[in-house]
Amino acid sequence: MDKPLLPTEDASESSPYVNAIFAVLGFAYLFPYYAMVQPVDYWRLLFPNSNVEVVISLAYTITTVTTLLLLVCAGGVLRYTRRIVSGLAAQVLVLGALPAIALLAQLSARYLAVLFSTVVIAIATSFLDSSVFGLATLFPHGALEHVQLGIGLSGLFAAIFRVVSKSCFPPSMVQTSTTVYFAAGAVVVAGAFIAYILLLRLPITRRCMHTTKQTAFEMRLLRKIWRNEGLVMLAYATSFIVFPGAISAIPSFQFPWLNDSAWWQLILLTVFAAMDVVGRYSAQYRCGLTARSVWRVVALRLLLVPLIICSTKGVWLTHDAISILLVVLMAFSNGYCGTLTVVLVNDCVNASELSATGMFSSLSINLGLVLGAAIGFGLSHLLHF
C-alpha cells in the first residue's frame, strides 16, 4: 500500500504540520495591510503634505470592524472555504493593482484610489480573519497561537522586504521598488491557497471540522467572555494609538540625515515588526498569567503611549537609543499580550463555543484596532506629527 502524502496526526495531539499551515494562513491574510503601511517613502512621494499611513490605518480598521459586525449579526455556522478563498483572491487582485495608483495625475484621484483599495482589502481581510480564527479554535492547542505567530511574521517580512526592495534601487526609483514590493506581496498571498488546500486534505481537518459541533454566536456566550474580550480590545488599541503613525513620525536625533531618506522610519518599523514576532512566540510561556490575571500586564503597557508621543515630539526623550527601547517594549508587549489575551479567552468556554468565540475574538481585535487608530488619528492632528 502506498504511503500517505500528508501527515495523519491524531486530532487529540498538537501537530507541527498543521501549526505550520495555520502560521502560513496567518502570515498571508494580514500581509496586504502591512504592505500598505510599510512604504512610507512611497506614500510621501505621492502625498507630500499628508501622513497617509494614518488614513490607511483608520480606513482599514473602520471597514474591518463594520464588516465583522455584520458577519457576527448575520450569525450561522461559518463557511470556511468560501470565505477564505474569496478573501485571498480579492487581496491578490488589489495588491496587483496598487502600483497603478502612481499613474493617476490628480492628487484627489490618488487619494480616492488608496481609500478604495484599503476598503476592499479590509473587507477581504474581515472574511479571512473571522474564518481563520474560527477554524483554528477547532484544532488542538497550538493552532491559534501559530495563527498569531504568522501574523507577526507577516509584519516582520513586510518590513524586511521593504528595506530590501528600497536598498536594491536608487532613491530616484521609489515607484519601481514599491511596484516590486507589492507584486511580491501578491505572490505571498496567492501562496496561501496552496496551504489551505493542503490543510483540507488532512484527516485531522475533517475530524476537527465535523466532530466538533459548532454553535452560532449568542448573547449568552458574550456574558461569559466580555471581560476577556475587552482586554483583547484594550491590548490592540494601546498599540495602534502609536503604530504606525506616531512611531513612523519619531525623528532620529543623532543621525538627522536618516530622516530625509526615510531610513529611520523604516528602521523603527522593522524593529517593531521583529520584536512583535518575539512577543508572539514568547506567548507560549504564560508566566503564571491566567484569564483572571492577564489584565495587569495589559494595563501596565498603557504607560508606553505617552512616552512614545514624547519621543515623537522631541520632548524630554531625545535620544535614538531611548526611541528604539520604547519601540521594542511596545512591540514585544503587543505580540505577547495580544496573543495571550486571545488564547486565554478560549479557557472561558466549552468546545462547542470555540468557533463562535474565535469569530468574536477577531471582532474584538479589530475593535481595538479601530479605537486605537481613531485616537492616534486625533492625536496626530492635535499634536501635529
Automatic annotation (TrEMBL):
GO terms for cellular component: plasma membrane. Signal peptide: none annotated. Keywords: Membrane, Transmembrane, Transmembrane helix, Transport. It is found in: Membrane. It is a multi-pass membrane protein. One of its GO terms (molecular function) is nucleoside transmembrane transporter activity. The keyword Transferase does not apply. Its main location: membrane. The chain crosses the membrane at residues 16-35, 55-78, 85-105, 111-135, 147-165, 180-200, 230-250, 262-282, 294-316, 322-345, 357-379. Belongs to the SLC29A/ENT transporter (TC 2.A.57) family. PANTHER family: EQUILIBRATIVE NUCLEOSIDE TRANSPORTER (PTHR10332), EQUILIBRATIVE NUCLEOSIDE TRANSPORTER 4 (PTHR10332:SF10). This is Major facilitator superfamily (MFS) profile domain-containing protein. It comes from Aphanomyces euteiches.
